[in-house]
Amino acid sequence: MNDLIGITIGDPSGIGPEITLKALKSNNDYLNHTIIFGTLSIMEHYRDLLNITTPINVIDDVSQFKQGSLNLFNVVDLPLAEIPIGEVSATSGDAAYQYLDVAIKLSLAGKIGPVVTAPLNKEALHLGGHNFDGHTEIFATLTKTKKYTMMLWSERLSVVHVSTHVALRKACDLVKKERVMECIDLAQAALLKLGIQQPRIAVAGLNPHIGEAGLFGNEDIEEITPAVEQKQQEGLNVTGPVPPDTVFRSAANGDYDIVVAMYHDQGHIPMKILAFDEGVNVTLGLPIIRTSVDHGTAFNIAGKGIANEQSMLEAIKLGVRFSEEA
User: Fold this and answer.
1) What angle do the packed helices 135-142 and 90-108 form, to 10 degrees?
2) What is the average per-residue pLDDT within 113-126?
3) Quick check: 1 pLDDT over 60?
4) CB of 151 closer than 8 Å to CB of 191
């Protein structure tokens, strides 16, 4: 695995450029193994705002990489005046997509290793002409990946999701045996790569009290339980369905290594409560490694120099860890 890390700055109107520079400023080892994919004008703006003296080395090929510099692919060359900091913008939404497109192609070609992503804004992305639900779907499309899922990782709690960016009404319909088994397999493979030899996987139920024997819905009986039983027969250490109002507490207390959540908020809410700054978003199932911060563009604080870079540092750290195990 190539040891060069690619960081896409996300929506340039958000906090992505700032947290990228702060993370690299705090860790010279990351700095000396990272290529940034973004726009020169916004990176120069934040470099000055943050009083960073490291020079920017603009490159158009990885062979031009220089140690001790901020190595930047100036993917979308925009003047600073065309990047409205702290606002939704079609220009910024399109730029965020273009950064990803270049980074993913280089990673697929083996010229860089993991791709770490700063946050993008879905409204801006759509205004920019790219009708994706988010990073996960962009990576799956551009890498032609059919079986994938989102994992949120922290040292205290980790989850994978049966569904993510869909309406809650639709999410219930997506709880199917095959998809639940797919997510169990992806969770198992990810934890093995991270060095957990016998992963303990809990599968959350969908309905209150896992359906109360069918009184509150049949999905837990008809879809989730058969998926768990089949994976148990295959030798995986998987438990479920476990009532969703207790499974995350049990996992946070160390009873499980990961939880398979049935929909976006079921997994995201406990993660945001327990590990907001430390959480990392990982797309499982891809032919390349992709990790990301687990927060949004934070337009309300963009440009103020007060954004917290901890999730970016954790995302880089986990990307490196995955690449070392690959």
Assistant:
1) 40
2) 97
3) no
4) no
Query: What b/e string do you get for 54-70 counting C-beta neighbours within 10 Å, with b at 16 or more?
Result: eebbebeebeebeeeeb
Q: What are phi and psi of 107, to 5 degrees?
A: -70, -45
**With contact defined as beta carbons under 8 Å apart, do 154 and 274 qualify?**
yes
The dihedral of CA 298, 301, 305, 306: what is its sign?
A: negative
Give how far the C-alpha of residue 249 lies from the chain's centroid of Cα atoms, to the nearest Å. Answer: 23
pTM for the predicted model, two decimal places? 0.91
- 3-state secondary structure at position 261: strand
At 289, give phi and psi (nearest 5°): -95, 130
Give CA–CA dist 76/239, Å, rounded.
Answer: 47
Place of tokens 């702060």: 22
Indicate the helix (H) or strand (E) that contains 25. Answer: helix 16-26
What is the residue type of 135? H
Q: How far apart are CA 283 and CA 189, in angstroms?
A: 12
pLDDT of 326 reads: 61
Six-digit token string for 40: 């020169």
pLDDT tens, position by position, 184-241: 999 999 999 999 999 999 999 999 988 788 888 899 999 999 999 999 999 999 999 9
Radius of gyration of the chain (CA): 20
